[in-house]
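Case study.
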Amino acid sequence: MSKTQKELLLFASTHRSAPLEIREQFAISADRVASLYSGLRAIDSLEECLVLNTCNRIELYLISLKPEIKAVIEDHFCEFHNFEIDHLHKFSFWKSGLDVVNHLFEVSSGIDSQMVGETEITGQVKSSYQTAAEMASVGPVLHRVFQKCFQSTKWVRSNTTIGKGQISVGSVAVDLALRIFGKLTSSRILVIGTGEVGEKTVKALKSRGAHSISVSSRTYDNAETLAKKIEGQAIAFEDFPDTLSKFDIIVCSTASPEIIISSSMIKAVMHERPNQPMFFIDLAVPRDIASQVSDIPNVFLYNLDDLAKIANENLNSRIAEIDRCRQILQERAARLWSGLEHIEITH
Amino acid sequence: MYSFISDERIFIWTAALLYLVAFVFGFYSLSQSKRYPRIILLTLVIVGFLFQTLGLYGRGLKTSSCPLGNPFEIIQFITWTAILLYLVIGPAFRMSLLGFFSAGLAAGLGILSLLIPEWDRAYETGPNGINPWIETHASMALFSYGVFATLALTSVMYLVQNYGLKQKRSKGMVSFLPSILQLDQMNKRLLFMGVAVFTFAISVGMVKWVDDFSQIQNAKLIFALALWLAYLLVLILRLLNYLIGIKFSWTCVVLFTASLLTLWPIDASRSVVDEQPSEQGP
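After joint prediction, the assembly is written out as follows.
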């Protein structure tokens, strides 16, 4: 123990310690974060604090002069959320010292995320750090710890395959579309059916630059509603077979019990556009597109099973990489921890 | 025959080994699903290219001509062109993995040509070298072979990407290859470029042929014209959308293999000057 007894602490409730319905209760809206900070800063023995608040976690990084701070924080947290202390103990946890650094490094690099390797968390950690810095609630220790954390995250992202591959159906579809078309800015997309997965897939394609989107559905009103939502245009269901040749990517997610796109239909379409590839994404169960369509040259057909298989393969490759990342991050965390000695932090 | 360890051969050996290292390194990274080491591979290929250029330059100084007089030199010139094209079009069109394939081709053909001493036999160039028009014809013709070599590589890349997409593969090499559409467009451009350069080379050769019928061997003329017509036909069929996709890519691969094989009958028709080690070598 050093002279001044400063301690690095973490108080947290995450997807690992609390189910969704509890996390929903812990969730803090952006406008209430400032209020949480002002409450924390009013605590005398708290030297530094940083709040990391995402849909899957609420974490408080603290530098304290007194060990009894834990009870004060818990009381403050319960009061803030109007939550029972027993419940809080059940769904939250404390870490201290090097374990906090290790935890932060793993969170920021995405290996503690629900979708292992996702990159969104890094931005959220940075944003939380920025907010804390603006509120002048971080001091020399948290500044140093978070700066080193961003360096380590960057290193791990660049030198391991933790972030490689896609893990949602939409992002797998985007990945495949890029392998076929290179860029999606000039790709024309037709969505048949207004199912949620189809909508998400189209939104994923749109996020990568696709802007020419049409929607067709048995219920024209549904097609119009979705078209409006994704800034596309609606096509009557009876008309879609005649317009197929105009589209590069076709996303199907209807509730039809029968095939709506046959092999002969696509053979005829490919006569009109022999040198332009077509990508069919069949998200419907039962399937909307005849499996024989995949035998046609320059036509690529993926159904829900195919997409899920790729998503799981990518997820497996991330999980396999976790141990390697964890080891690298722990080495870096240990180096940082030994370097913090001169700031008189409890070891 | 040139000495097995002449200066320019050392340069060319070094180049071939650098290409081999680049290819093996790329292959290892891809097989381990690691990040594709583009910078390392590019550096190895650039250094290899500089050594190969030095080697060919040294050989050119010795023969007082463009070094295209025997199968060894022809192979080296073709691979040199293929690497040059990669260095020009690879970064410009973001043709990832073209360097890996080009390095593989240059290493394979280069080492093969270095290991067969008979391919590097001596030849006469005359005191003032070869007629510049013949040199232009030969160098342009072999430059077009280099373009067709790159076309064959991008066609292989197309076939691999197409196979990966059809077989629902998302791991390894396929994830680093350019898109189907990019490869198709690149193939079309390379074919157009190759046919244009080859047409120019044939035209220059024809002028010479018209001047002096006896100077050109029938076999060489027939094979060269057949190859030119074949590529021209493929270009026309491609432009008319009759030959597309995997059929087009397979045709380009087969045609380039055939064009390499035609080098032997063409070369065989050339009069062999000396089967003994030449004084041109050190």
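Observations recorded in class. Chain A touches chain B through 26 residues (CB under 8 Å). Chain A has a mean pLDDT of 87. We will return to this complex in the next lecture.
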